[in-house]
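The following block was generated as part of the benchmark described in Methods. Ligand: fe (ii) ion.
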Amino acid sequence: MAYYHRLGNIPPKRHTQFRQPDGSLYKEELVSSKGFSGIYSNLYHIHNPNNVISIGEPTPYSWEPAKEYGLKQTHLKTSGVGATGKDYLTARKMLMMNNDCMMGICAPEERKMDYYFKNADGDELIYVHDGEGVLYSQFGKLQVRQGDYIVIPRTTIYRFEWKEEGPLRLLVIESHGPIETVKRYRNEVGQLLEHSPYCERDIRPPGELYTESEKGEFLVQIKKGGMLHPYTYGHSPLDIVGWDGYLYPYALSIHDFEPITGRIHQPPPVHQTFQAWGFVICSFVPRLFDYHPLAIPAPYNHSNIDSDEVLYYAEGEFMSRKGIDRGSFTIHMGGLPHGPHPGTVEKSIGAKETHELAVMLDTFRPLFVTTQGLDFVDPAYPMSWRE
Ligand SMILES: [Fe+2]
């Protein structure tokens, strides 16, 4: 949820006659959340959105938790990984999961998709670690670049087109519940408050409509129930001439997140960026360190008794960790205390600022490494605090 937005042509009143140049009606589609009680948008199609030509055999598209992995502080080292697959869907490797969310990486060889994708299982949050491109969806064109969080509500039909030059690497989160801006940052009508680290000006909805009116055969891979269902339609699903509402994909750059700092160490909730069911997303961005004369910039040990904490290291040097690279994940599990590596606390004293950039995902229910995630485990990490 961001704010009301509209693109293209829509009739003055919803659910009324809205005619094409040949006199036929446009086909209205309401896309609504929480039944009819949540946010929604109204889309106007040239063709019938149910114009299915064929349905292919579903194929499994899911991951398995490695339940025997055990209770261990974990480092998944993915920095040396090149392409993770040929195309956008085969390249998505989910490394952690529970019933609320999944998190992984995606570095496809192919920069363009020759099909559309629709995730009917959950909302997606895609962090562009490396890359620049365009998200084409029914809601229009959205330019995206390094450092963007892209929120894609479930059932949005989309494809990405990435620039051929330079590396491409995405952090992918799928959420069972809606991914939203943080409730305590909003006033009673949803506007982001003065103390919010970002505001509506930082949220970028699709900038221009993109209408594909032609007929033909268009494949939409629909993810539902952990399976991919190949649906072929008789027209492009991007046949929208206008839409309005509150439900649409948008981007928010991590570089537009304004950090909150203090005299002494500020806890992770000041970095919160999004909320969802069962987890939160926080952004650690370049900022001034604590300015109390006796401040310790490194975080204190803490035992977060009911959270599993994942940090994805995007840029910069992490003063509280050793052996962590760009593209590393650490998972600090509830039930064990965690904190700075030996020597890093003293070393942090007197430091004035940090250039670190990291994305944090904290879950409130246990998170599991997936069987694919096991390939990236750094076996030395659980004992890396040993003095
Ligand atoms: Fe922590």
